[in-house]
Amino acid sequence: MRIGIIGTGVAGSLLAERLDGAPGIETAVFERVRPGEHAEAGTGLNLGPNAAKALRLHLPERHAALREASLPWRRWFVDLADGTRLLDLDLLEVADEPGVRIRWSELYRVLRAPVAGITRHGHALEAVEEDAAGRLVPVFRRADGELARHGGFDLLVGGDGRYSQLRALTAGVPEPRQLGVCIWRLLVPDATDCPFDDYGQWFNGNARLLAFRVPGNAVYVAGTFPLGEDGQITAEHRGLDYQRRLFLPPDAEPSADVAWMLAQIAARFGEIHWARSADAPMLRHSPDGRALFLGDAAQAMVPTLGQGATQAVEDGVLAGAVLRAGGDVRAVAALRDPRVGFVRDLSWAASDTLLPGVDSVAGTRKKNGEAFRAELRRLYRDVPGPEELLAA
Ligand SMILES: Cc1cc2nc3c(=O)[nH]c(=O)nc-3n(C[C@H](O)[C@H](O)[C@H](O)COP(=O)(O)OP(=O)(O)OC[C@H]3O[C@@H](n4cnc5c(N)ncnc54)[C@H](O)[C@@H]3O)c2cc1C
Question: Which of 37, 39, 226, 323 could form a disulfide with 33 if both were Cys (CB 3.0 to 4.6 A apart)?
């Protein structure tokens, strides 16, 4: 069986590693960026404990490399902007191991390294044709501007992210569902004086800061705030004064944590990446079953629970296990779709406190309750190991 993987982000790299050398499978891997280029990966992220568990059970070497390049995500606290504590969770109460705090560039480096030798870089998927045997032939625009074809494939896998070209070409362009919230991201280097370490969130009404340390003495900061009725990020939103007002408590001094972040925002305002929070309808494969979608290509989700890359990790290792065992795209869908559906819905529902008209204090305190912890246990622990997969 000849399998072509488009994109070596999170899901694509892990799938390529899982399939490389598998008996009866010939794998070809294509990536738009050049070798060693991680320019699109500017900031940091947290991977849930479920990503760590998936790697530990299925790719222990990658688990070790990821731990080496990251800090453990052990704690999750939520404060108000004046420092009032609303929630303080030890993740080991709901997970089998800590999550991961890492820089994007490091995550890509760790995941891409084992498949660098089998990846054709500078190959951007542009079109899909069909050969005489009815197999899909991907057509790439190479970095030198020329078109390239590398034959027909029994299966093409889209690991090419939220704006997947493979999904667009074989199943149509998905219509995003906007949450109505802006999320911006900033990586602060040289953060020696940062007063906090592990994962925290700070609410001021429905505006929220989120931050944690990542390796290299850096801190990742993300700001979230509701957009107006038109759902657009306006020039006013992108102003420093507007952003300060969003996160400053109206009747109190900001906590030391919030004051530190506001100073960093002011110093590095031009480096902020702005985006809108949205998800897209889940689709696991093209109608004819010749293209499989993994990670954001299948299931772009809102970033509220930090599960986008986390689910891409689960997708890569678990789809790899299914395909190695001779399963097809429907077997991958049967394993992944109920799980991903649960995670997408939970991520959307947990975004309630970011929306206007919702009491963020009451909403956060509710997350202290047993019902939300049970959801988190399911989220962080329900990852099948090789024996469970075999039995299924
Ligand atoms: C603001 C924000 C914050 C986030 N924070 C978190 C977080 O804290 N934790 C978390 O788990 N997730 C987070 N996410 C989600 C995360 O970024 C994605 O879910 C994750 O990167 C998806 O992985 P992937 O492998 O599907 O795609 P990607 O990592 O996007 O990789 C896609 C790959 O395909 C390549 N490619 C693209 N098009 C082509 C083409 N035409 N031809 C060939 N190659 C191509 C790209 O170069 C890239 O290498 C966040 C997202 C946003 C927007």
Answer: 37
Question: pLDDT tens across 296-354, in order?
Answer: 999 999 999 999 999 999 999 999 999 999 999 999 999 999 999 999 999 999 999 99
Question: What is the distance in A from the centroid of ligand 1 to the CA of 104?
Answer: 10
What is the domain extent for residue 337? 2-176+278-391
Q: Whose CA is nearest to atom 4 of ligand 1?
A: 303
Q: Is residue 45 part of a domain?
A: yes
Please indicate, yes or no, if residue 137 is contained in any of the structural domains: yes
For 112-169, write each residue's pLDDT tens digit. Answer: 999 999 999 999 999 999 999 999 999 999 999 999 999 999 999 999 999 999 999 9
How far apart (Å, rounded) are the C-alpha atoms in residues 123 and 150? 11
Q: Which residues line ligand 1 (CB under 6 A)?
A: 6-12, 30-33, 45-47, 123-125, 159-161, 165, 183, 185, 275, 295-297, 303, 306-310, 312
Q: Has residue 221 been placed in a domain?
A: no
Tell me how many domains the chain contains: 1
Q: What is the CATH number of the domain that holds 137?
A: 3.50.50.60
> Who contacts 239 (Cβ-Cβ below 8 Å, separation ≥6)?
none
Sign of the alpha-carbon torsion through 237, 241, 244, 249: negative
Q: Which two tokens stand for residue 164?
A: 């997947």
Q: What percent of the chain has pLDDT over 70?
A: 99
